[in-house]
TrEMBL record, chain A:
One of its GO terms (molecular function) is deoxyribose-phosphate aldolase activity. It comes from Paracoccus sulfuroxidans. This is Deoxyribose-phosphate aldolase. It comes from the Bacteria. Keywords: Lyase, Schiff base. It holds the Pfam family DeoC. Belongs to the DeoC/FbaB aldolase family. DeoC type 2 subfamily. The keyword Acyltransferase does not apply.
TrEMBL record, chain B:
Keywords: Oxidoreductase. It comes from the Bacteria. InterPro entries: Ald_DH/histidinol_DH, Ald_DH_C, Ald_DH_CS_GLU, Ald_DH_N, Aldehyde_DH_dom. This is Aldehyde dehydrogenase (NAD+). The keyword Membrane does not apply. Signal peptide: none annotated. One of its GO terms (molecular function) is oxidoreductase activity, acting on the aldehyde or oxo group of donors, NAD or NADP as acceptor. It comes from Paracoccus sulfuroxidans.
Length: 318, 780
């Protein structure tokens, strides 16, 4: 069974038997995650290409209390031109943007304006980000607000308490309501894995989110003590694989908050390629939630093109 | 050149080849190679090629060692040994530390050289082999320093001959050389002829660190060179390689006092229970049989999976297998490199073909150009299929199913071998039970192919004996404080005619001595008797041994299940009853022996719950436990002298550890033991734990040595007895221990050495961690 990549995950009925016997062996997951990155190596033009691919998968993000419309506009400019055009030209790459821009709901309009005329989508967090501890009707209202402002994608947070208490049907119902509120906007379900703690919780929550119709499952808000890690990502990817095996629908993956270096960008892509396959290296199924990552990739690209390591003052600020 | 935008479409990995120019320059500058003897390289002679199997390219010429070369090397080692031992632990530690550091500084060079010579992926030589080599020398620098305090009274063996295989050339060298040197021995090492180069690079490192001449000698060559080393005047042979060659070595050394440790083949089970994390288990298969092209003696090559999860497991396995990259070993994105030699590739292909011909289905496993074979597995395979029974030593596993845990254990144990096992279950209860049931020297729970210098490694059954690594490994390179050796008397010729004039007291009812089998008095199968101590004693034979072994197996489960405290209670009760039956025993044994028997009961009752294993500090996040397990059924051929003290000195430590015993009492004076049988009966020693077969010692000893279901054999007697016994035992690699004592009642004839010989170690690895790293797990 395989649905076209373009077809959205409609979700399923809550089906606990798909996940209630999962028990992830943590040391084994960690061993796999740590050896995986030593099993694959990317050099020269191959490395440059994979780094550029990472750029087109980035949800360039600002989620700070001091965000302003102008700051968001500057970020959007960077999203439209993440790598210096002369360097792209030197590599024979025509055009490149990031995968999306990700902001708070009140900044959607500013982003929308700054990105007008481009194909770069605007993603908005919602549902009482980052803790999600608001009444459900307010969380749903926030989704509708972000949509009304023009968001193409909504990054929602799940109620961690429902996972920690094992109340899967309540979690499923909440997420179904959120998915309905998202309407045509893509729903990325943030599991806040650093607060779920165990990999078994992560696996089960991943399944519930997909069964409720999430288009992407996402590791973290970036505000938890531990954000995206390779072992957590591995477990989520295996849940995506299992869901695809059962339903034929491809759910996307978004690690967030833990990717800071070009090496991280390569490692996560290797993880995607090895565990899910190359289809999951496209922005339609892979996003990286990051803000500082792009700077390090720019430095590596600059070195690949010029043979020199650039000072950050020579790179365009986002 | 592929353009960046094209790659952005294909998202291929592209080549990433490690630079080998420094290694090639070294080979050019240093080759052709002679042997390393007495601190310098000999002039190359009678060279053969060392080949890169991935490119069929000649890397260097290496010399074929002759018996003369071996003799020279042994002389050099012999000359160096006293000085090396006399240096003291601290000085030896400094050298081992220097070796560790130097290897660490040259890890890139050594891993590239290893990959070129062997064909293994650079990722493995770089991330696994060489770091483990370094770890091994560090660990043993520690043992050198601590030898005197941790092994009081122990002495080095002398000169050790060491023969290593081609699958982990430098790592196996480290496993052999490091403990030998730490203990104060000197060595003559013969690397495998396919892979001599890292050993020669190691010789150069020995020179660099200023290791005294003759402490390490390396003679290159093929099996003939190895045979010359086995025949040479060395104090120990340590061999890692095939079971067939191991058997030959064991036969050759039969009847000598040379020590022998053997780390041989395997067909290790990989057991996936229905509650396992299947993804973790699939990854375990990758780390088992698809590691080092499957050329791993302890590889989990027999996958046994619970029927309830078999379909899903196989689906995941196939998907994972499809992701493995077979390719140039120097490419850093290669998972599976080259088979070491065309001969080995052919052998793998032949076994696979035979397996398919016998009805199995091969998934994957395609032969590539040159020395490459894709990973694969055999399914629908019957237990008797050659693919199931023979060690393939290639990247081909077998996959079959089981229904219940007991069936899993039975299938796991249905093999000649017993090196390692891997068990996958998320239930601690289930996993630890399986670890206990499976007969193997190493068990990995929820993991596979984990190694560490502190964790003993070695096998049982056709996988050999002896351990490498940790405390146990050191003991295999040390001589324990010796007992005063004695010469046992030669038994009289067996005669059916009683001595004249000693026909017993007519006032007594005639006493009929019988064999003691399965807790009952039994007449001998042949219905014959022989004369001893003025009585007609049953003349036991091969069939009685057979019956006794069967009874011992039937009885040992209950006895082992009693637990150490339970067995101790029985031994104390035995002492109590011995004390009460003194008078009866006094007819057949002097008071000193009866006193000794009572003392030994107390001693081994005391020790039953104190000869503990240990946990070792192998890696963080891993609970690594070394257990002392009983062998199972032991044959014990008692001395002809000291009819009671000799018997109890051997039988009591064996049963205290949970073994069942088939004992051959003193041939000339069996009555003490046969009287003891009645005491055993009334002391709650359960049926079948001690069995006694009286009769001609040599014939009975040989019958025990030729019984494949006797797991260990102790035999007292002269070399003329021991040689044929050890030769016969070599057939199924039964470990033979030949104690000798001047005075069997002496205090020195008891203790840890006997308990150690009555057990073998099982190393169980259990990785733990409820939480991932970075979230406060105790494991990290």
């Amino acid at each position: 069974m395989d649905m076209a990549t373009t077809q959205r995950n409609p979700g399923t009925d809550l089906t606990p038997e798909w996940f209630d016997r999962i028990a992830v062996n943590t040391p084994a997951a960690e061993r796999r995650a740590s050896s995986l990155t030593a099993r694959r190596s990317l050099k020269k033009e191959w490395q440059a290409a994979w780094l550029l691919n990472a750029v087109r998968c980035i949800d360039l993000t600002t989620l700070s209390g001091d965000d302003t419309p102008d700051r968001v506009a500057r970020l959007c400019a960077k999203a439209l031109q993440p790598i210096a055009p002369e360097q792209l030209a030197a590599m024979g790459v025509k055009s490149l943007t990031t995968g999306a821009v990700c902001v708070y709901p009140t900044m959607v309009e500013a982003a929308r304006r700054a990105l007008a005329g481009s194909a770069v989508p605007v993603a908005s967090v919602a549902t009482g980000f980052p803790a999600g501890l608001m009444p459900l009707d307010l969380r749903l209202a926030e989704i509708r607000y972000a949509r009304d402002e023009g968001a193409d994608e909504i990054d929602i947070v799940i109620s961690r308490a429902l996972v920690l208490c094992g109340d899967w049907s309540a979690l499923y119902d909440e997420l179904c309501a959120m998915r309905e509120a998202c309407g045509p906007a893509l729903m990325k379900a943030i599991l806040a894995t650093g607060e779920l703690k165990t990999l078994t919780n992560v696996a089960r929550a991943s399944h519930v989110a997909m069964q409720a119709g999430a288009d992407f499952i996402k590791t973290s808000t970036g505000k938890e003590p531990v954000n995206a890690t390779l072992p957590v990502s591995l477990v989520m990817l295996r849940a995506i694989r299992d869901y695809h095996d059962r339903t034929g629908f491809r759910v996307g993956f978004k690690p967030a908050g833990g990717l800071k270096t070009a090496k991280d960008a390569l490692n996560w892509q290797v993880l995607m390629a090895e565990e899910l396959g190359r289809d999951w290296l496209r922005p339609s199924l892979f996003r990286i939630g990051a803000s500082s990552l792009l700077g390090d990739i720019e430095r590596q690209i600059s070195h690949y093109v010029t043979g020199r390591y650039a000072a950050s003052s020579r790179l365009t600020m986002g | 050149m592929t353009s960046v935008s094209e790659i952005m479409e294909s998202m291929e990995y592209g080549p990433s080849v490690e630079d080998a120019s420094a290694v090639r320059e070294w080979l050019k500058a240093r080759g052709p190679f002679g042997h390393f003897i007495g601190g310098s390289f000999t002039k190359p002679a009678e060279s053969f090629d060392s080949i890169d199997p991935a490119r069929s390219e000649v890397l260097a010429q290496v010399s074929q060692g002759s018996a003369k070369d071996v003799a020279r090397a042994v002389r050099a080692a012999r000359k160096a040994q006293p000085g090396w031992a006399a240096l003291g632990g601290h000085e030896r530690a400094r050298f081992l530390y220097a070796i560790a550091r130097t290897i660490q500084k040259r890890e890139r060079f050594l891993s590239v050289l290893e990959t070129l010579d062997n064909g293994k992926p650079l990722r493995e030589s770089r991330d696994i082999d060489v770091p483990l080599v370094v770890r091994h020398f560090y660990h043993h620098a520690g043992w050198a320093e601590l030898r005197d305090s941790e092994f009081p009274g122990h002495a080095p063996l002398g000169v050790c001959g060491q023969i290593i295989p081609w699958n982990f050339p430098l790592l196996m060298l480290a496993w052999k050389v490091a403990p030998a040197l730490a203990a104060g021995n000197t060595v003559v090492l013969k690397p495998a002829e396919y892979t001599s180069l890292t050993a020669l690079a190691f010789a150069e490192i020995c020179q660099q660190v200023g290791l005294p001449a003759g402490v390490v000698n390396i003679v290159t060559g093929d099996g003939a060179t190895g045979a010359a080393l086995v025949a040479a005047e060395v104090d120990k042979i340590a061999f890692t390689g095939s079971t067939e060659v191991g058997r030959q070595i064991a036969r050759t050394l039969a009847g000598t006092s040379q020590r022998l440790t053997l780390e041989l083949g395997g067909k290790s089970p990989f057991v996936v229970m229905d509650d396992a994390d299947l993804d973790a288990a699939v990854e375990g298969v990758v780390d088992s049989i698809w590691f080092n092209q499957g050329q791993v003696c302890c590889a989990g090559s027999r996958i046994l999976v619970a029927e309830a999860v078999a379909d899903r497991f196989e689906h995941l396995l196939q998907m994972r297998m499809a992701k493995l990259r077979v390719g140039p070993p120097l490419d850093k994105s290669t998972d599976v490199g080259a088979i070491v030699h065309p001969v080995q590739k052919q052998r793998i292909a032949q076994i696979c073909a035979a397996a398919v011909a016998a009805g199995a289905e091969l998934v994957g496993g395609a032969e590539g150009q040159g020395c490459f074979i894709a990973p694969g597995y055999l399914r629908n395979i019957a237990p008797g299929n050659p693919g199931m029974t023979e060690e393939i030593f290639g990247p081909i596993a077998t996959l079959s199913t089981f229904r219940t845990p007991d069936e899993a254990a039975d299938l796991a144990n249905s093999t000649h071998y017993g090196l390692a096992a891997s068990v996958w279950s998320e239930s601690a209860t289930v996993a630890t039970d399986m670890a206990a049931r499976i007969k193997a020297g190493v068990v990995w729970v929820n993991s596979a192919n984990l190694f560490d210098a502190a964790a003993p490694f070695g096998g049982v059954r056709d996988s050999g004996y002896g351990r490498e690594g940790g405390h146990e490994g050191m003991l295999d390179y040390l001589r324990a404080p010796a007992m005063k050796p004695g010469r046992d008397s030669t038994p009289a010729a067996v005669s059916a005619v009683p001595d004249s004039g000693s026909s017993g007291d007519p006032a007594q009812i005639d006493r009929t001595a019988k064999l003691y089998i399965g807790g009952a008095q039994k007449r001998p199968d042949a219905g014959a008797s022989y004369a001893a101590q003025g009585q007609l004693v049953p003349l036991g034979g091969r069939k009685d041994i057979r019956n006794a072994v069967e009874a011992a197996h039937a009885g040992r489960g209950k006895w082992a299940g009693l637990g150490a405290h339970g067995r101790a209670q029985v031994l104390y009760f035995l002492a109590e009853n011995l004390s009460q039956r003194r008078e009866e025993l006094a007819a057949f044994a002097p008071a000193s022996e009866i006193d000794c028997a009572i003392r030994r009961c107390f001693f081994y009752a005391g020790f039953a719950d104190k000869f503990d294993g240990r946990t070792v500090a192998a890696k963080p996040g891993h609970l690594v436990t070394v257990l002392h397990e009983p062998h199972g059924v032991m044959g014990v051929v008692c001395p002809n002298d000291a009819p009671l003290a000799g018997f109890v000195s051997l039988v009591l430590p064996a049963i205290a550890m949970g073994n069942a015993v088939v004992a051959v009492p003193s041939q000339d004076r069996p009555m003490a033991a046969l009287t003891l049988a009645q005491v055993l009966d009334c002391s709650d020693v359960s049926a079948g734990v001690v069995n006694m077969i009286t009769g001609p010692r040599e014939e009975l000893a040989l019958a025990l040595a030729r019984h494949d279901d006797v797991q260990a054999l102790w035999a007292v007697g002269p070399a003329e007895l021991l040689r044929p016994v050890e030769e016969a035992a070599a057939q199924v690699l039964t470990p033979v221990c030949a104690p000798s004592a001047k005075d069997w009642t002496a205090a020195e004839v008891e203790g840890r050495e006997f308990l150690r010989a009555a057990t073998r170690t099982k190393t169980i690895w259990l990785p733990y961690g409820a939480l991932p790293a970075g979230t406060g797990s105790a494991a990290y």
